[in-house]
Amino acid sequence: MKVLDKLAPLKLDRTRQSAPQVFEALREAIVSVQLTPGTVLQRGELAEHFGLSQTPIRDALQRLGDEQLVDIFAQHATVVSRIDVSAALEAHFLRRAVELEILKTLCELPETQHSELMTRLNAHLQMQESTLQPLDVHRLALSDQAFHREMYEAAGVASLWALVRRQSGHVDRLRHLNLPAEGKAEAIVRDHRAIVQALAGRAPQEAQAALRRHLAGTLSFVQDIKDRFPAWTV
Asked: How far, CA to CA in Å, does 67 sit from each of 70, 71, 93?
């Protein structure tokens, strides 16, 4: 299958700059492991595919390079990078530190805000449960992100979500490789349910314990991934 066959059609929003939209489309294809390490991304082909000049394509590829999701060889080629396990561990550390503090903040929200947050988080849980039978890895991954983003926004630190996301490309790729594993999807939903239950009871220590279990599960499979996908990691 050609590279362009793996990229979903992109209807550009003409009210936004094109480079960020190309970046988002390519990033999603890489993070969701549709594009494998070593895949060559050619500016000319991408420009034709997206119906754009090469300038926004170049800018999008540069942003991917900044996140270490591609390796850029000047005057030669741009290729999808291998998964940097060390970078994944650092992103995991950052996310855990931020979200443990967020949970404390959420347990102290005023009653109205707290109640509204519980309603939204439970709606995310229902969405996630609907992705399990049959398993829809893509929808579950998107709902997982929406669940966590909801907590950042409710805690008033939405900008930190953007920071964490910029650092999370490698760990997200590991997660996508592991999501089809037996029991993994169910474990994600179960962990989220435990977090919501602890938040509903305004029990920060219980919520933090549930989050630690949840995030520990994210990287506990790294060695297995390295064994099963040796060409994917570095």
From this structure: 8, 10, 17
